[in-house]
Amino acid sequence: MTFEQLSIFVAVAEREHLTRAAEALHLTPSAVSSAVRALEGYYGVALFDRVGRGIVLNENGRVFLDEAKAVLARADEAQHVLAELGGLRRGRLAIAASQTIACYWLPAPMVRFHERFPGIELALSIGNTATVADAVAAGEADIGFVEGVVDVPALKLRKITEDALIVVVGADHPWRDGRRLQAEDIVAGSRWILRERGSGTRSAFEADLRARGVDPAGLDVALEFPSNEAVLSAVRADGFASVVSASVAEPFLGRGDLVAVSYDLPARAYSLLHHRERRLSRSALELVDLLCGAGSADGDQ
């Protein structure tokens, strides 16, 4: 059974006339007659009675007519849904993002996206780099945004922009004096409060130490916290150091609650994650275009 057969049957049933149905459908009468005969023959059910030179819908046909109209109506509705999705008038985009990105970088572009496409629901979940990668790999999120290194073969990584990392201490820490620090000083000269393992911030910091020939296992990590806010509050309260995004620390630096240490860290990438075997939806592409307006879109891997 095809949609064309159903459409022909409904047209004939409503008119009880092959020629008029053919004219309405822009088909030949023989094509219309053949489609009706094929439908009746395949299922072994007569839908019309042949009366003289005309046809009359019988009881079988009347019962089937309601079902055929319902199927065609649903098909028409499905076409409208696809058209709306193509025009971004309806839909849902599931986003997973690591904490720094979700709290400090994504909100403004998400607001702009909503203003442009109010019919698309944006569902944001927050984790660290590792949990975001897991969510995208499992299909729980359509796209993900991370600032850490991801080595998952099923995922494609695309650089969007960059973020500056800085070392910060409280106002009473000895490093507040602006002295220039080396990697050896970083490991030996302070106790640390850091994000949890698996976070992009910590991964980038530890990778930089290794690149300088210093083992990050030598860091005296007193506490680990799962949020930037908890890390900064703890560092501000006592003689610890930490590594955070410059955008996260900015309000604390402005009030004098924290001090940026004279130690250079390389910029880290903010990257888009998506599954290699899943096509990015139009809504996802539109959001990425908004994000790329402020940064680079190079670096597919």
Describe what is shown at a glance.
The chain has helices at 3-15, 18-25, 29-43, 59-86, 99-104, 107-116, 129-137, 183-188, 200-211, 228-237, 246-255, 282-292; strands at residues 48-51, 54-57, 91-98, 120-127, 143-146, 155-163, 165-170, 191-195, 220-225, 240-245, 258-260, 268-275. With 301 residues, it is of the alpha/beta class.
Q: Could you characterize what this model shows?
A:
The protein is an alpha/beta fold. Helix content is 46%, strand content 24%. It is built from 12 helices and 12 strands. The protein has helices spanning 3-15, 18-25, 29-43, 59-86, 99-104, 107-116, 129-137, 183-188, 200-211, 228-237, 246-255, 282-292, and strands spanning 48-51, 54-57, 91-98, 120-127, 143-146, 155-163, 165-170, 191-195, 220-225, 240-245, 258-260, 268-275. A 5-stranded mixed β-sheet has the order 4-3-5-12-6, with helices on both faces. Strands 9-8-10-7-11 form a 5-stranded mixed β-sheet. Helix 9 links the parallel strand 8 and strand 9. The chain is rod-shaped, with a radius of gyration of 32 Å. Residues 294-301 have low confidence and may be disordered.
Give me some keywords for this one.
301 residues; alpha/beta; five-stranded mixed beta sheet
- Principal-axes geometry comes out as rod-shaped
The beta-strand count equals: 12
Give the end-to-end Cα distance, rounded to a whole number of Å. 46 Å
Spans where pLDDT lies below 50 across 5 or more residues: 294-301
Number of helices: 12
Q: Secondary-structure element sequence?
A: HHHEEHEHHEHEEEHEHEHEHEEH
Proportion of strand residues: 15-25%
The gyration radius over C-alpha positions equals 32 Å
Classify the secondary structure makeup into a structural class.
Answer: alpha/beta
Mean pLDDT equals: 89
